[in-house]
Write a structure and sequence with these properties.
Blueprint: E1 9-13, H1 25-32, E2 37-41, E3 62-67, E4 80-84, H2 86-95, H3 103-114, H4 116-138
Parallel strand pairs: 1-2, 2-3
Antiparallel strand pairs: 3-4
Length: 140
């Protein structure tokens, strides 16, 4: 447990890969009350109806990691970002390398942001097909 191990950082994937299991925001809120950083990898958040964004303002020890790898298909370019309390962001900026995202990755990410509505249509198709696949598999 967090307390018995004196953990200073807790990392969780939400939703989990490969299971797709989701940790409820209530559970994450409880974890955020512990004396440690709670880092949630939300790489697949666009493929669910839940994320932890609503918890950010309530907990200054919560960090959400997001990526362009999954929803936008930019896995090879390694573009991601963190959402956290300003005090955490300030610390992260003090230790990050300058120019840590190359021009190609930056340009691709900006295009994906500009085209997010269209890209999310594909994500919604994937989600729909996932539900059909799940339904068919439960019939086997």
């Amino acid at each position: 447990t967090i307390r018995s191990k004196n953990a200073s950082i807790l990392f969780l994937a939400n939703p989990n890969n490969p299971t797709g299991n989701i940790i409820s925001n209530d559970v994450i809120s409880t974890l955020c009350k512990e004396d440690c950083l709670v880092v949630i990898d939300e790489a697949y958040t666009e493929f669910t109806d839940q994320n932890c964004l609503s918890l950010i303002e309530s907990f200054d020890n919560l960090l959400l990691l997001r990526t362009f790898s999954k929803w936008s298909g930019l896995a090879g370019l390694r573009v991601g970002y963190v959402i956290a309390h300003p005090s955490i962001i300030k610390i992260l900026f003090s230790i990050k390398q300058p120019y840590n995202v190359n021009v190609l990755a930056d340009t691709a990410a900006r295009i994906c942001i500009a085209q997010k509505k269209q890209i999310m249509e594909t994500v919604h198709k994937i989600r729909s097909e996932r539900e059909i696949l799940f339904s068919e598999l439960t019939n086997i």
